[in-house]
Amino acid sequence: MARAAERLRLVVGHIDRSPSSIICEPTSAQAFTNSQPQKLRYSFDTGLLTPQQRLFYEENGFLLIRNLVSEGDIERFRKEFERICRQEVKVPGLVVMRDVAIAKSEFVRDQKAVSKLQDFQEDPELFRYCSLPEILKYVECFTGPNIMAMHTMLINKPPDAGKKTSRHPLHQDLHYFPFRPTDRIVCSWTAMEKVTRQNGCLVVLPGTHKSTLQEHDYPEWEGGVNKMYHGVRNYDPDHPKVYVEMEKGDTVFFHPLLIHGSGMNQTQGFRKAISCHYASSDCYYIDVKGTTQENIENEVSQIAEKKYGMGDVSFMDTWAIRGRLVQGERISM
């Protein structure tokens, strides 16, 4: 009887522990290169992710979920993108970006002139992506239950015009974010059509999320670099790369310190994807002055002053006005 009581006490003690304190041991030699137990730092046990999925994210910093977003939703996002490109709808705060190679050519008012929509939080149809239950249930595994949608994009990667400007340099998303903690931030990135190496799929450097934020700046590329497309200055060129090829509706979730980018679009079509960066509403803003992020802060401030005449808006403020609560309770952001 005493032994049974002791066993029950141990089981209850295990159940009462927080998800971050759970120690998992690998089930095969392929999972880890060593046999030591490992604490799971980067995800919560919500009952959704399998142990194998949590361990994969722990080691690699990204997780691909197949066939997550429906074809019907993707078609609606595509139609709204086309309406915006035809200027049939005006969206407050929306930033319409063009590839530098396209911008130097004759401007045509259709989607072929647009390489990216950024900050679409005021467009109800596109912002619906950020609130999809099938997305949020995975986001909660990384942020916890209180979720803010912080940064939104619809990428329309154009065929490369011969200048290699359709590339996106290797970078860490945290470079752009003045909020922490880092591990409670995650990006969801959904393919709106088949994404391959030929049309410029994401390329990631697995495991780099375990490092720190690196110094970023514009790469010295011939042909030019698109505005705000900073890249990591120093990284190991011999680090293994993974090309994340995806089908329509597939979604990849990744950590903000994961070094990633995308290659040229070497096809004749456009490669569309929609994404959102989420953060726990428990996160807090930081002052980036004197850090490696000061250059992006200065650039954002200059753009805000030029476009909106707002010289007294801080870097934190530019993010605070974009954030939207999509699940749970707004705590400190």
TrEMBL record:
Swiss-Prot/TrEMBL catalytic activity: hexanoyl-CoA + 2-oxoglutarate + O2 = 2-hydroxyhexanoyl-CoA + succinate + CO2; phytanoyl-CoA + 2-oxoglutarate + O2 = 2-hydroxyphytanoyl-CoA + succinate + CO2; hexadecanoyl-CoA + 2-oxoglutarate + O2 = 2-hydroxyhexadecanoyl-CoA + succinate + CO2; butanoyl-CoA + 2-oxoglutarate + O2 = 2-hydroxybutanoyl-CoA + succinate + CO2
Signal peptide: none
Enzyme Commission number, as recorded: 1.14.11.18
Domain of life assignment: Eukaryota
GO molecular function per UniProt: L-ascorbic acid binding; metal ion binding; phytanoyl-CoA dioxygenase activity
GO cellular component: a single term: peroxisome
Cofactor: L-ascorbate; ATP; Fe cation
GO biological process: fatty acid alpha-oxidation
Class of enzymatic activity (EC top level): oxidoreductase
Pfam family, one: PhyH
The entry's keywords: Dioxygenase, Iron, Metal-binding, Oxidoreductase, Vitamin C
SUPFAM superfamilies: Clavaminate synthase-like
Annotated metabolic or biological route of this protein: Lipid metabolism; fatty acid metabolism
Family: Belongs to the PhyH family.
Stored PANTHER family: PHYTANOYL-COA ALPHA-HYDROXYLASE, PHYTANOYL-COA DIOXYGENASE, PEROXISOMAL
Listed name of the protein: Phytanoyl-CoA dioxygenase, peroxisomal
Organism: Oryzias melastigma
